[in-house]
Design a protein that fits this description.
The structure is a single chain. This protein starts with a strand and ends in a 5-residue tail after the last helix. The radius of gyration is 16 Å and the shape is globular. It is built from four helices and seven strands, in the order E-H-H-E-E-E-E-E-E-H-H. The relative contact order is 0.22. By secondary structure, the protein is an alpha+beta fold. Strand 4 and strand 5 form a beta hairpin.
Length: 145
């Protein structure tokens, strides 16, 4: 399953050259992951209500062409790997209006998240602690090529 999230590029997210500052793509990925969870019926607030949090433990980004102030980012998000303790999301960022089937994305990124106890911050098994989320991830999984 691929979820598309549109995010307008705001002036404050750009640098002196008028392009999106590289670290701001991580914010776009966070917005897109939250949207992804909403669309699969498991909002992030539900995870926190169970006394858990899902921090990022690894990030990889590959930059292509820049987005600029006034553009709208189209972030295509999918889950590409799931284990009992980690979930990998892959995001492709396009400029709204690009042909996502034939054009290269502006940015490609991968974030790996884990599940931790909110009080102790110790990792837990999502398969054991949130079996319904783990099963949902299995159903929407789009393994990377």
């Amino acid at each position: 399953m691929v979820v598309e999230t549109e995010i307008p590029v705001r002036y404050a997210e750009t640098d002196a050259m008028g392009v999106v500052y590289h670290a701001n793509y991580l914010l776009y990925f966070e917005v897109a992951r939250t949207d992804f969870l909403e669309k699969i019926g498991y909002p992030y607030a539900r995870i926190e209500s169970e006394g858990l949090m899902s921090p990022v433990v690894d990030v990889h980004l590959k930059y292509g062409s820049p987005l600029r102030y006034g553009d709208t980012a189209l972030v295509r998000t999918k889950v590409t790997k799931v284990t009992p303790v980690k979930t990998t999301y892959t995001c492709e960022v396009y400029r709204k209006g690009q042909d996502v089937e034939h054009e290269k994305p502006c940015v490609v990124g991968e974030t790996v998240l884990t599940l931790v106890d909110k009080q102790t911050f110790k990792p837990v098994s999502q398969k054991r602690e949130l079996p319904s989320l783990y099963e949902t991830y299995q159903q929407v999984l789009e393994p990377s090529e």
